[in-house]
Amino acid sequence: MVAGIVWTTTLGYLAVAACYIVTRLAYARIRRRGPQRPPVGAEDLDPFELAMLAGGRQRMGEVALAELYLSGRAVARGHGLVARPQHAEQRPDRLSSAPFTRLLDARLDSSRSLAADQLVRLAARADPATAVLWRLRRLGLFLAPDRLARVALLRSAAWGLHMLAGAAGVLAGGGVVLWAVIPEGERFDAVPLVFAGVLIAYPTLVYVSGRLLGGMPGAVAVSGAVAAAAIPVVPAPRAPSALLALLAGWSLLQCLYRLTGGKLGPRTAAGDTLLAEAHALPEGDDSTQAAVRSTALLGFRALRRGRRRRLRGGRMPECGELAAVCSFASACGSGAYHC
Length: 339
Known about the structure:
The protein is mainly α. The protein has 2 domains: about 1-30 and about 160-260, no CATH class; about 40-145 and about 275-330, no CATH class. It has 13 helices and 5 strands. The protein has helices at about 1-35, 45-55, 55-70, 100-105, 115-125, 125-140, 145-180, 190-215, 215-230, 240-260, 270-280, 285-305, 320-330; strands at about 75-80, 80-85, 115, 310, 315. The chain has a 3-stranded antiparallel sheet. It has a two-stranded antiparallel sheet with strand order 4-5. Strand 1 (about 75-80) and strand 2 (about 80-85) form a beta hairpin. Helix 2 crosses helix 6 and helix 3 packs across helix 5. The longest helix is centred in the middle third of the chain and has 37 residues, at about 145-180. The radius of gyration is 24 Å and the shape is globular. The protein starts with a helix and ends in a 7-residue tail after the last helix. This is TIGR04222 domain-containing membrane protein. InterPro entries: Ser/Gly_Cys_C_dom. Keywords: Membrane, Transmembrane, Transmembrane helix.
């Protein structure tokens, strides 16, 4: 039975790997047939268009939050929550004219806090986001959805099978834990405390590792560690050894997924060129706009990690507004939200 599971899973891995490679080659061919040079310059795009180009819809919500924070109309309350300051200055001239910023501003209240991810999703799903998307498509910076439909469908199916195999491995790791801790010959109903401990400790460890290492890879890493630890303990080590080998194969498949581009985005070669130009543009004298532009190009995740983009002459000059946005991004990501 163990051999049959190993062979079946291995064939599934090979099929998924083939799909990843084929879809990557097809994606590269589609991009070669698309626009190669942008018709506009990076300075012709506003921060929200740059955000969509660099990071998609969610990035636009992050830019809107950063604008509200820099204008003094939003503060972080900790644990990923955002609210209106108690004594916010109600000056319309300090509020951006962008519809995304005004949409989020209308939702904020000093009497209650809202989750940052909820506000980001609100901006991402707003009608103006669709207008930005269509403008980038008309400029040749994004591919039309019908050109990527087949490639995206095949890759999504392969990724779904990949994640399903990882989830099965995590569940099997829980079974290995029970097998290792239950003494040989004991009845299952004779050790309720052991079951309770395992059912609490293992899912918690999986959850924490998933948060730290990024979702399923972290959970699979925990399952692999459990399988490795159980090999010298269980009376028949063949099953945990097979599980460990399959989880190692899953990790190699995850590496292949990343090497072949991960989730293939709609940006064209012209979009890549314009984005590179945007990263190379020197900032102006307005430090607030520089901070907003950096948020559009990098996103909250990169800002939380302290990354700074490089200019032609070296690192971007430090400014108080950018440091403040980095702190705000960290506060927005300290709860359940990890943007």
